[in-house]
Amino acid sequence: MNLLPNPAPLASKLRNTLVRYHSIGDGEWREAKKTRDATVWRKPSEEFSGYLYKAQGVVEDVTNRVVDHICPGPYRLDWDSLMTSMDVMETFEENCCVMRYTTAGQLWNIIAPREFVDFSYTTSYEDGLLTCGISLDYGEVRPNFVRGFNHPCGWFCVPLKDCPSQSLLTGYIQTELRGMLPESAVDTAMSSTLANFYSDLKKALKT
Asked: Is residue 17 in some structural domain?
């Protein structure tokens, strides 16, 4: 089992990486999917051979409550249809932990269930919050799962300037699912999953 990294420098590097993604110009993104709730774009990842996805949509709730639903914690399993289990393995501070979670099979199980172990960090960003993560090679891989790997990922959530009771939620996701998978299947699954994330989250916030 690999040792856990020092959380402070990892958190700082992760935040800086996500802020850099957030400054990428619109012209570098190609639209992948658009729904009533969100738009998803993609561009080649700098981290691996797949794509970095950007998703954005307006969520009708205050920033803190939105992020409470996204962060590792009791809310997430209740509403996120892709996530099937989640355990916090280590807690460094209130806003910093290591979690292990599993995801359901996708595309008629062409993509089998996956397991991830992620370092998760939540911090302030402008008038809102950033919650971000990166996978670690840590802990034993459980049977019946392929261990996937999240390269730097995160969600920026800031209040709308003209309507603070609503939030602009922007996500950056680059997941290496691993295993022998056709790229087209991964692209379809990622785009759909991100769009569904917004519709599931919006329903959860209304309850």
From this structure: no
Residue 71 domain-assigned (yes or no):
yes
Q: What is the DSSP letter of 180?
A: S
Angle, CA of 34, 35 and 38, to the nearest 5°: 80
The tokens for 24 are 């990428």
Q: What is the CATH number of the domain that holds 199?
A: 3.30.530.20
Residue type, 170: T
Domain count for the chain, please give it: 1
* Dihedral sign, Cα of residue 102, residue 103, residue 109, residue 110: negative
The whole-angstrom separation of Cα 42 and Cα 187 is: 9
Residue 12 within any structural domain of the chain: no
pTM of the model: 0.94
- The four Cα atoms 202, 97, 90, 81 give a dihedral, to 10 degrees, of 20
What residue spans of 39-156 are helical by DSSP H? 63-70, 74-79
**pLDDT tens for each residue of the chain, 207 residues long:** 567 888 999 999 999 999 999 999 999 999 999 999 999 999 999 999 999 999 999 999 999 999 999 998 778 889 998 899 999 999 998 799 999 999 988 776 677 889 999 999 999 999 999 999 999 999 888 888 899 999 999 999 999 999 999 999 999 999 998 877 778 878 888 899 999 999 999 999 987
